[in-house]
Amino acid sequence: MCNIAANLAAVKDRIADACLRSGRDASDVELIAVSKTFPAEAVREAAAAGQILFGESRLQEAEPKIALLPSSLRWHFIGRVQRNKVRRMLPLFEVIHAVDSLRLASFMDGVATELGLFPRILLQVNIGGEHTKGGFEPDELPAEIDSILSLPRLEVMGLMCIPPPGPTAGHSRPWFTALRNLRDELQSRHGTPLPWLSMGMSGDFETAIEEGATHVRVGSSIFGERAYRVDGELG
Ligand SMILES: *Cc1c(COP(=O)(O)O)cnc(C)c1O
Known about the structure:
The protein is an alpha/beta fold. The chain has nine helices and eight strands. The chain has helices at about 5-20, 40-50, 60-70, 85-90, 100-115, 140-150, 175-190, 205-210, 220-225; strands spanning about 30-35, 55, 75, 95-100, 120-125, 155-160, 195-200, 215-220. α4 (about 85-90) links the parallel β3 and β4 (about 95-100). The longest helix is centred in the N-terminal third of the chain and has 18 residues, at about 5-20. Bound molecules: pyridoxal-5'-phosphate (PLP). Pyridoxal-5'-phosphate binds near residues 34, 162, 221 and 233.
């Protein structure tokens, strides 16, 4: 757990370079420091180095961690959403990244109504068409998005993906391009702005920025290698 401040600075430099290369403004890309599996201490260290936005993927791990930390920190939920956790999740997280079905979106909308909240969400797209991954199929989303957009409580900010794993960062590029193209198509066809693209992790965040990412989710490059896998999630 050493070097968090130095790792964070290095990641920020790489983000700035990727923005420069692709003619983007550094303020257009938000870094989500993915703290899953790491203790509150590690988050504190990153916060002391200026990071205020963090990502978690399991509610049962995030709840006690968030409770130990200053309320000035901001949290995004990046993991798979279980319906029975939505009620506890919505008040803690400012954005839910992986809404992966119309059914879940409708359910969330109902809970948000009861809680008096207007959650910001992203729609996860199974961009690589993998059997093991959740998300809307790219060719089904155009037919379903109108129903999602009509849910009164959910603020749909854009799309999110986790591309199939590959040997190099460049391997992810076509998937990132595909997600951006799908977003552009949905935007022009439905006239609703979908400004956010959550894509890119430690192995490929620079490529994601070159392809238009507005949110990169970076864990191990900041906090170090994770000692254990998160159930049903990436390691
Ligand atoms: C764990 C995780 C990340 C961060 O992965 P790293 O390779 O450690 O940067 C990003 N996104 C999701 C959805 C994750 O589960």
